[in-house]
Amino acid sequence: MADRPPRDSAAKKDPAREKDATPESRFIGILLGLRQAADSANRSVAARARQDLARLRHSLLDGRQTEAYGVVFAKDLPASETDQRVWVLVGGLFALNPDGTWHNGHSRSIGASMGALARQGNSAAVERRFTQLLGRDPGSLPHQLRQVVRLLGDRGVAVHHGQLLSDLRHLLGPDPRGDEAARVRLTWARDYHRPPLAENKPGQTESARSATDFPETPA
Questions:
Q1: Contact by Cβ (8 Å): 161, 28
Q2: Domain spans of the chain, in order of start
Q3: What is the pLDDT of residues 94-108, one digit of tens each?
Q4: What is the CATH number of domain 14-208?
């Protein structure tokens, strides 16, 4: 069971920051809003949010990606076909693992999340799965990520979906074996093996950060 953060910890909207927000950060904000709304005391609000999260999960199945479009593209349209695929994928992955606590001082990559999982035990099996993840091509990486993110959610390990979205723009983009994609894989590997800086300090949820706290990505 994931360590569920307090629902009043979501960052309050700041009009100035909202104005400067990128399409990517607004998309992540939609996802975080669904997570909060799913536990609303208002039953109709909670039901709609849970339905939207279910649509996102279903979009991970072959031929059902269109079910996510109404949620994923509610505020913005991605700039490219690659971004469209990445947004839909990240939306589905978020719905698999929407909860968890992100620790201050910890790298935000999926490699850091897998490293945290390995420290829970059975590290050899986790490392084999992580090595497979690093070696996947764009055709098989989404399937492997579904398995990994579901496993992380089952074990209560957080995923920083904003960082994952940024990384996948390179790994699933037009040059998946280029320098930027190689840099992402190197970062994942480094973060997997590097001990966390603040594992025992109070956690910070991804929602506690402003939705505009988002890694810069190329246009």
A1: yes
A2: 14-208
A3: 999 997 555 445 568
A4: 1.10.520.40
